Amino acid sequence: MRIPVFRHGTISVLTRRIGWAWLFLAAISGRLLALTPSSPEVKEAIDRGVQFLASDGANDERFGAKALVGLVLLTHGEPHDHPKIVDAAAKIHAGLTERDPAKFNTSSWDVYSTGLAIIFLCDHDPAANREDIECLLKYLRWRQKPHGGWGYLERETGDTSMTQYGVLSSWTASHAGFNVPQESIEAVATWLMKTQDPSGGFGYQGTIAKGNALEKQSEIRPSMTAAGSGSLFICASFLDLIEQTEKRKDLPTALKEIKSKEAIKKEKERIKTRIDLRQIRETQSRAKDWMEANYKMPPAEWPHYYLYALERCMSFRELFEHKAEKEPQWYDDGAEWLMKTQGKEGSWNGQCGAVPDTAFGVLFLMRSTKKKIEKALSFGEGTMIGGRGIPKDTSEIEVRGGHIVARPLLGPAEKLLAALEKPDGRDFDRSVELLQALPSDKVEDLTAKYGDKIRMLVNSNAMGARLAAVQALGKTRNLDNVETLIYALTDPSPQVVQAADQALLRIRRAPGTSAISDSFSEEDRRLLIEKWKAWYQTIRPGAEEQ
C-alpha cells in the first residue's frame, strides 16, 4: 500500500531533501502522528456522525438502515434504552410478520437487511430478541444457495457483496450463543475459494471454478475483494482454523499440561472441518497481493461501504496472522479522507444514502470489528462493577446494595471450569463472570479441589479466562500460586499483568499498592518480575528460577 510523505520509510528521504528543521515543524504540527480511534480529531468526527444518526434528520425506514443506526449507537456506548435503539428493535420485530421463511417479504428482507438485523439484535439483547434472531437465522439459511453463497433470488450466482453479511451475521450469532450449522460455513468458505479471480481479487457475481484452476471473474473491485477476503477470514475463525500461537516452553510446573486418556480420546473424536487451511492461506495470500497492488483511497465506487468492509477484513486478518499494526496505514488514509469529506451536520452521503454511509463511516473510525472480536474472545457484552461484563443471561445476576453481582455457582464446579476452557462456547462469558464474582472463601474451597485446573487457565488463549483465573488465585493468599502469578506478569495483556501484580500484593498482604502503571514499558515489566522473584526466594529459598 502507498506510504504518504511523512510516514515510516519516506522519512529518511524527506530529511535528506529538506533538513531536520522543517521535519521538526511538521512533527510539532501533528502530521507525523498517525490517526487512531483515540485521536482527538477522529473522536470529534465520530461524535458528529453519532449525533447525526441520533437526530431526526437520520430518517431511513429500511430495516438494514435501522439496524445500522442501532449498531453504531450501541458500539459508541449509548444506553440500550436510547430512543433510536429501541425504535430499531421495535421496527425489526414489527417487520417479522411471517415466521415461515418462504413467506417473507423478500423485497424488504434482502440479505443485507437480514444480516444487519441479526447483528444488531445480537448486540442489543440476544436473550430478549431470541425469537426474532432465530427467525431471521432460519430465513438466512433459506436464502443461502446450494453452492454456499448468498445472492439474489432470481439469479443462480452467489453475490460477494451479500455474502459478506450472511457470513458476518452467522459469526455474530454463533458468538451470541445461537446455533449456526457448521456445514453452512463450510459451504460458503468453499464458494469463496472457488470464486476468486486468478489475479487474487474478488468479483461481484461469483463464477464457480469447475476444477482446480481459478475462473476469470467480472467487476473485480477493492470493495468486493475486501468483502470476499474478510468473509473467508471470518469462516476460518468460525471453523477454528485460526492457528494458535506457539505454546510457550518456559512454563512453571503448575502450568504444564498433562492430558488424561479421556481428554486425548475426546480430542480425537471431535468433528474436524473438511476445509483445508492450506487452501485458505493460498486464497488469502493472493487476495493480499491484489489489495496491495490495487490499493487507493478512496476507491472510485461505494467508498463508505468499502471502508467498513476493509476494516472488517483487516481486523480478522490481524486475528488470523497474529499480527496487529498499532498505527495501520489503511486506517490513517481512510480516517483522513472521512474527516475531509464529512458534512456540516456530521453525515456522509454517497451511493448508499446518508444514513448507511454515515453508519459505515463511523463504524470504520471506531474500529468496530476489532472491538467486536475483542469482546467475542474475552468477556462479552456490557459492563459490571469492576469492569466485568454483564452476563447475556440476566437471570444469572441480581442487585445487592446497588451493585450488580452474579448469583452463586449454578451446577457443579467441573461444569464452570470446563466452560472456561472453551472460549467459543455459549457459557464462557457467564463462567468468567461467576469466577470473578466469587468471594474469597468460595474461591478457597474451589482451589482446594481444583487448583491445578484454575492455574492451567492462566495459559489459556482467551484473555477473559486468564484474567479471571489470575484474580481468583489472588484471593487465596496461597503461596503455591505465586509461581503461576509471576508467570502471568509476562502476559501480553496489560490488564492481566496488572491483575497478577495486584494478586501478588494481596498474597504479600499489601493490597491496593500500585506497583506498575497503566502504560508500563517492557523494562518496567522486567524489573517487576525480578522484584517478585527476589521476594519469593526470600520466603521459599528453594524455589525454581523461572
Summarize the structure.
With 546 residues, the protein is an all-alpha fold. Helices cover 55% and strands 2% of the residues.
Output the keywords.
globular; two-stranded antiparallel ribbon; 22 helices; mainly alpha; 4 strands; disordered N terminus; 546 residues
- Indicate the overall shape: globular
> What strand order characterises the main sheet?
1-2
Q: Report the oligomer.
A: single chain
Give me the secondary-structure category: mainly alpha
- Sheet having the most strands: 2 strands, antiparallel
Taken as a percent bin, the fraction of beta residues is under 5%
- Written as H for each helix and E for each strand, in order along the chain, the element string is HHHHHHEHHEHHHHHHHEEHHHHHHH
Measured on Cα atoms, how large is the radius of gyration? 25 Å
Helix content: 40-55%
Number of strand elements: 4
> Count of DSSP helices?
22
User: What is the terminal-to-terminal distance?
Assistant: 42 Å
Low-pLDDT residue intervals, each spanning 5 or more residues? 1-31, 266-270, 379-412
